[in-house]
């Protein structure tokens, strides 16, 4: 009896978790009107805002120049690029100085913090920004030349305080996990982020994000001690009622590549998860006015916990249902999480097809097979990262009491600073 | 406040698909405005619903004759309510059980209040609820398939008031419940908001329909076509795969159930889903429907006896719409229902298929919609085609006059026929012999608890409520020959039985059932109710042939 109740409760909990996640993941495709509204509006030709584009770079001399050149090709007429380099990184500094000498729109700011991370770098540059809007890019980003014009238009027509553009991993053919990683970004930026914007609670991405300079200064910039400073900024801004607009156009997204190895993906994800937990514990989200918003915030920020939980419980549940004698009705319930999993898989397959169509990429049968077969293993990876994050955050809290430098020592290299 | 660019969620979209608006408007209308816009629809639909409920509900218990199948499903619903599993005899996968599980839910509260209300005549009231919902869904579907208000109302009236529909939807048939689910699925598939989860819901509703009555499977392609037409190019692949996945997953719960019980595949000593399907697929055919000597022909004529307008007119309407596909917007809008009619007609025209009397139930709402759509198409052609601003007034007047003449002619043919049919339905008493037999068995038998009676399914629950032991005391007559669990308790054959209630069904089937036949042969009537072929005899085993009561 007790076993039955336990299995039923766990199965139902897993079912509802997966069902909600699925519901949100499919947000953009709910109706054709919703899908149409997730795109940028067509620019009207007017350009009234000026941009300060922050480009933090650390040991990225190989790609930095290309990124700067491409940003300078922007069709927008009024912007500056502020490259932020470390005082201990002469190679990158040299590349940045050369670019600044070639074009007056490029400036260099040197970050002298002893322990370096991305939020500190950006906070260093914030007082130097002259534009109406601050935009953030990473040193390896491929930015579309017309993006700024679209963002300008979006700011003016929607009276937004923040505009988040799309970021998309493209190299889905590289490995089984990059396939899933690409699709994760696809569902996140294409779909779920729009739901967050609509509901008024949004963890922002790490780049292709644009904030009005006065709003950003009013919010004291980024939290230098947070591992997910981008998510944190979004939570703080939406908690005080700032208007966030998300727009996704497949030809306008910032293109990126997946982490180079499974281990770095695991590390990246651990950091992202731990950042979410930190944001959860900072409790800024409690300022959100609506109960539903707070619930969504709680759920979204706790996702790492949930993933860790399901990672432990799903196998246990399956084993109990298989090896213990339970009534038919209860055995039925144990299949409920499987049902949502199958629906999710089916939508992922369709999503992969749509991804291929949107980006003109050829998706082969083998990719679909990899997507399905790799699914459970990717879940294991996510659960592993989640457990790791929870464990590290436990230790991080002890560190906080000792040093008041939360998590800073845990910071991975800047490259892995991924959008949440 | 944070938000995305505003999304339109309440756009009104005609059946012919149209691109999503480039510039979304400011959002949904407030509820009060929406209600105001809906008021004419509510009036038409509500008014018709009242009429339909009165015509279908009045005299529901006494007409038509209680059918054996009604008794079967209700008895199984009773078994579900009692926690005896899916049937009071071994459930053998004859049909998926969802249909009578729903009847059990519908009858749960009445049965709690008064256990005796779980008999066929009383529980027909539950079917009134079902057909009310179906009628409203029929109207909604008509509107969603862009029929004008009057045509949707016409469809609802045809579906609700045709004497054929009145007779069949009063009976506790699984098909009636399945039709409700299918109509819901079509309504969701034609959702004007083209919402992903509406289409997903359509898949779930369709699966519920199929799990209620498996024959609904053949209508699914028509549902798919409807969904295809009503989805938008940009979101279609998500909507359709979602719907198909939902339908398949819910549908698979049935084999999963069999698997979990260890009854998926045949094996010694247990029933199986496989055997159930094999039985249904190998049921002896009833002949070609147009061959005057066949059983199917008889079934067809039993339908046409009640009403010719809906079946034949609907078929003609479907043909008209399929032929005018290229020119008529209405024809394209009604592609789904037309296809459903075409598929069901094609299945009925199999050379030697099994055609049960309730088969037509699945087609009724689609026939009605297609007939109403055909009428709308004709009226539109007369009134609007080739009309210009400068048209002479007498020509316009002529158009309306022709429409009026056609409407009057149709009415003059249909109304008298339907009036007669529906008057019979609200006045005739076909079940008096059943009620009398039930009363006799409840009052005249001294010791019901130790009396064993072979009885048809329609009367079985009455006996159970009267105190007979369900299953081995009150026995479904054919179980005495076909269910080993019952024959085992009758080592001496007919000598172990006390009474046989020889209703028309029992007499008809006895020729293939040796134990039942022997019981009839070795018994004599102690009470007879009704006359002729419809009479019900209560025969006592071993009684002398003289002791008859009238």
Automatic annotation (TrEMBL), chain A:
Record's keyword terms, sorted: Glycosyltransferase, Membrane, Transferase, Transmembrane, Transmembrane helix
Superkingdom in the source lineage: Bacteria
Database matches in Pfam families: Glyco_tranf_2_3
GO molecular function, one term: glycosyltransferase activity
Coiled-coil parts of chain: none
Transmembrane feature ranges: 6-24, 304-324, 330-350, 371-391
Family indicated by similarity: Belongs to the glycosyltransferase 2 family.
Stated name of the protein: Glycosyltransferase
From TrEMBL, chain B:
Composition skew (Low complexity), residue ranges: 1-18
Transmembrane segments: 42-61, 125-141, 147-166, 203-226, 238-257, 309-327, 334-351, 357-379, 400-419
Subcellular location(s) per record: Cell membrane
Residue ranges occupied by any Glycosyltransferase RgtA/B/C/D-like domain in the UniProt entry: 104-253
Organism domain of life: Bacteria
Keywords: Cell membrane, Glycosyltransferase, Membrane, Transferase, Transmembrane, Transmembrane helix
Principal subcellular localization: membrane
Pfam families: PMT_2 (PF13231)
Assigned GO CC terms: plasma membrane
Biological process according to GO: lipopolysaccharide biosynthetic process
Membrane topology, record value: Multi-pass membrane protein
Region ranges (Disordered): 1-32
Annotated GO MF terms: pentosyltransferase activity
The protein's name in its UniProt record: Glycosyltransferase RgtA/B/C/D-like domain-containing protein
Organism: Streptomyces alanosinicus
Lineage: Bacteria, Bacillati, Actinomycetota, Actinomycetes, Kitasatosporales
């Amino acid at each position: 009896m007790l076993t039955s109740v336990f299995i039923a409760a766990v199965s139902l909990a897993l079912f509802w978790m997966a069902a909600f996640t699925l519901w949100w993941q499919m947000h953009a495709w709910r109706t054709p009107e919703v899908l149409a509204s997730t795109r940028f509006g067509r620019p009207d030709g007017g350009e009234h805002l000026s941009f300060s584009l922050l480009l933090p770079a650390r040991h990225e001399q190989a790609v930095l120049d290309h990124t700067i050149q491409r940003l300078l090709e922007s069709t927008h007429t009024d912007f500056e690029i502020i490259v932020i380099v470390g005082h201990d990184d002469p190679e990158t500094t040299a590349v940045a100085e050369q670019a600044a000498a070639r074009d007056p729109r490029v400036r260099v700011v040197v970050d002298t913090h002893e322990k370096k991370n991305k939020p500190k770098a950006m906070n260093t540059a914030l007082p130097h920004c002259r534009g109406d809007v601050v935009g953030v890019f990473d040193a390896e980003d491929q930015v579309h030349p017309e993006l700024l014009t679209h963002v300008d238009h979006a700011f003016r027509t929607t009276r937004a305080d923040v505009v988040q553009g799309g970021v998309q991993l493209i190299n889905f053919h590289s490995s089984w996990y990059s396939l899933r990683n690409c699709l994760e970004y696809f569902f996140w930026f294409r779909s779920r982020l729009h739901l967050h914007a609509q509901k008024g609670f949004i963890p922002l991405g790490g780049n292709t994000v644009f904030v009005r300079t006065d709003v950003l200064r009013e919010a004291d910039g980024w939290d230098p001690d947070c591992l997910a400073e981008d998510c944190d900024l979004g939570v703080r801004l939406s908690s005080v009622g700032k208007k966030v607009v998300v727009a996704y156009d497949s030809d306008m997204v910032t293109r990126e590549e997946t982490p180079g190895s499974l281990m770095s993906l695991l590390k990246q994800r651990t950091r992202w998860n731990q950042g979410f937990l930190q944001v959860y514990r900072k409790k800024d989200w409690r300022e959100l006015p609506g109960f539903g918003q707070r619930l969504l915030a709680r759920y979204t920020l706790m996702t790492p916990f949930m993933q860790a939980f399901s990672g432990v419980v799903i196998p246990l549940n399956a084993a109990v249902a298989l090896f213990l004698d339970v009534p038919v009705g209860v055995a039925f319930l144990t299949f409920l999480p499987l049902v949502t999993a199958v629906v999710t898989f089916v939508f992922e397959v369709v999503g992969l097809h749509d991804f291929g169509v949107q980006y003109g990429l050829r998706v082969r049968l083998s990719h679909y097979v990899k997507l399905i077969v790799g699914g459970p293993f990717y879940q294991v990876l996510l659960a592993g990262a989640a457990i790791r994050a929870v464990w590290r955050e436990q230790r991080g809290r002890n560190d906080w009491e000792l040093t008041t430098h939360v998590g800073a020592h845990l910071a991975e290299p800047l490259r892995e600073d991924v959008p949440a | 406040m944070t938000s995305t660019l505003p999304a339109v969620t309440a756009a009104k979209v005609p059946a012919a698909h149209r691109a999503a608006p480039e510039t979304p408007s400011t959002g949904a209308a407030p509820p009060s405005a929406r209600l105001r816009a809906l008021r004419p629809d509510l009036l038409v639909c509500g008014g018709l619903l009242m009429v339909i409920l009165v015509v279908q509900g009045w005299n529901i218990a006494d007409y038509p004759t209680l059918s054996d199948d009604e008794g079967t499903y209700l008895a199984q619903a009773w078994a579900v309510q009692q926690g005896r599993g899916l049937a009071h005899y071994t459930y053998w996968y004859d049909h998926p059980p969802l249909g009578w599980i729903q009847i059990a839910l519908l009858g749960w509260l009445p049965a709690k209040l008064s256990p005796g209300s779980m008999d066929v005549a009383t529980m027909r009231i539950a079917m009134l609820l079902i057909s009310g919902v179906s009628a409203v869904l029929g109207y909604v579907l008509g509107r969603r398939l862009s029929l004008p208000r009057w045509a949707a109302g016409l469809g609802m009236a045809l579906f609700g008031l045709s004497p054929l529909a009145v007779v069949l939807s009063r009976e506790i048939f699984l098909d009636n419940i399945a039709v409700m689910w299918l109509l819901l699925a079509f309504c969701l598939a034609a959702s004007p908001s083209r919402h992903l989860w509406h289409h997903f819901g359509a898949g779930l509703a369709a699966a519920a329909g199929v799990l209620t009555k498996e024959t609904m499977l053949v209508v699914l392609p028509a549902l798919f076509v409807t969904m295809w037409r009503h989805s938008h190019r940009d979101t279609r692949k998500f909507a359709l795969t979602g719907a198909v996945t939902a339908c398949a997953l819910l549908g698979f719960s049935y084999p999963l159930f069999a698997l979990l019980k260890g009854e998926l595949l045949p094996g010694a000593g247990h029933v199986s889903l496989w055997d159930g399907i094999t039985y249904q697929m190998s049921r002896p055919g009833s002949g070609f429907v147009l061959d005057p000597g066949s059983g199917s022909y008889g079934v067809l004529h039993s339908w046409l006896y009640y009403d010719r307008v809906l079946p034949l007119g609907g078929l003609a309407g479907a043909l008209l719409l399929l032929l005018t596909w290229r020119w008529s917007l209405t024809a394209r809008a009604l592609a789904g229902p037309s296809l459903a009619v075409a598929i069901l007609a094609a299945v009925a025209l199999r050379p030697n298929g099994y055609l049960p009397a309730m088969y037509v139930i699945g087609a009724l709402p689609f026939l009605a919609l297609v007939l109403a759509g055909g009428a709308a198409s004709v009226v539109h052609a007369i009134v609007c085609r080739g009309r210009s601003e400068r048209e002479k007034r007498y020509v316009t007047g002529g158009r309306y006059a022709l429409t009026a003449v056609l409407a009057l002619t149709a009415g003059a043919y249909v109304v008298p026929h339907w009036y007669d049919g529906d008057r019979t339905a609200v006045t005739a008493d076909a079940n008096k012999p059943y009620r009398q037999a039930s009363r006799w068995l409840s009052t005249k038998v001294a010791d019901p608890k130790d009396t064993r009676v072979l009885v048809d399914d329609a009367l079985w629950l009455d006996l159970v409520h009267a105190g007979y032991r369900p299953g081995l005391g009150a026995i479904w007559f054919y179980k005495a020959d076909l269910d080993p669990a019952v024959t085992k308790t009758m080592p001496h054959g007919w000598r172990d039985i006390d009474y046989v209630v020889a209703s028309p069904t029992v007499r008809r089937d006895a020729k293939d059932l040796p134990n039942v036949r022997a019981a009839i042969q070795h018994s004599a009537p102690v009470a007879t109710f009704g006359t002729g072929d419809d009479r019900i005899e209560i025969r006592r085993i071993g009684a002398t042939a003289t002791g008859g009561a009238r």
